[in-house]
Amino acid sequence: MDQSTYNVLIGIVLTLVAGGIGWFARTIWDRVDKVDDKLNSFRIEVARDYVSTHDLDSALGPVKGDLTYIRNRLDMMQPPARRAGDH
Length: 87
Hints:
Elements: H1 3-48, H2 53-77
């Protein structure tokens, strides 16, 4: 075999290898796009279930009022003492 035959064979092998790498890269890219789409739809589902600040405040308002009432009652029952949160 002469030099030109080797050059043709090397060219064919390199073309096949480059084509294989291109196909593999395209397959990986398609999978990444599918995972990205799924992740974005998951983010939309999670964000839709958040509680708004107004709803949270209105739900916790009575609880905070009751805790304040209990704290005031306890303060009247015992002499003032230093609590952990007081400075």
